[in-house]
């Protein structure tokens, strides 16, 4: 969803993912080496598994989500059918912070609309 750029090159991200997947280094150790959160490493691994090296390229476009997909994902999570991570994996959501925004909108009674390009961010409590 975001146009954020990583502080790490594509090759660095691939190297980190492969080291984790080989089991030669823990996620915690890689996170410390690259000065990122463990969640970031887990996201890199998920994206690599889904799309190979292309999954780790910096995004230059916004990812759109339909209101139906958002509602399904939120209800899946709130019904206890999955964690933030597994819900993001199941519904191909870019990050758990995106899902948290939807959850906060849903639980506050706001309408969940389809994602449109360039929408502002919402502080989340998730």
From TrEMBL:
Stored InterPro entries: InsJ-like_HTH, IS150/IS1296_orfA-like, Trp_repressor/repl_initiator, WH-like_DNA-bd_sf
Top-level lineage group: Bacteria
Insertion element IS150 protein InsJ-like helix-turn-helix domain location: 12-63
Pfam family of the protein (one): HTH_28
Protein family (similarity comment): Belongs to the IS150/IS1296 orfA family.
Full protein name: Helix-turn-helix domain-containing protein
């Amino acid at each position: 969803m975001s146009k954020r750029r990583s502080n790490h090159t594509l090759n660095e991200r691939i190297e980190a993912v492969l080291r984790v997947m080989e089991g030669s280094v823990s996620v915690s150790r890689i996170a410390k080496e690259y000065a990122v959160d463990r969640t970031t490493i887990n996201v890199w691994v998920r994206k690599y598994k889904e799309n190979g090296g292309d999954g780790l390229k910096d995004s230059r476009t916004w990812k759109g989500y339909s209101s139906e997909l958002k509602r399904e994902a939120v209800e899946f999570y709130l019904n206890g059918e999955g964690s933030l991570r597994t819900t993001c994996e199941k519904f191909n959501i870019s990050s758990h912070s995106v899902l948290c925004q939807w959850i906060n909108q849903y639980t506050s009674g706001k309408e969940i609309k389809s994602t449109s390009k360039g929408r502002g961010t919402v502080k989340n409590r998730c």
